[in-house]
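Note to self: keep these together.
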Amino acid sequence: MDNEKVFQMDFGKVYGLLLDKAVRKGRTKAEVDEVICWLTGYSGEALEEFRAGSVCYGDFFRNAPRPNPNQTLIQGVVCGVRVQEVADPLMREIRYLDKLIDELAKGKPMEKILRE
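Structure:
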């Protein structure tokens, strides 16, 4: 998929897909929110506003208040792509979130997901 198409996707719709993936595997909305807030620096309240609003996925990441400096510790493969090797910085952040949600859905402990 073209990067620009991904950047223009509605955050609320993508959030719903990420949440569904985690919940199907026995995880909770609170855990999904914790992962997203850890990665971006948004508060839970801000996350809910974005989820209910009409912000695009790219802008959600572009405007993140405090991207976590430990995000560079996120490594691995998502959809056949090594997240740490994604050239576009914005797409790399999006892939970081994909990887974290994958780890959550696979049952990894939160301490490991949040690189503590």
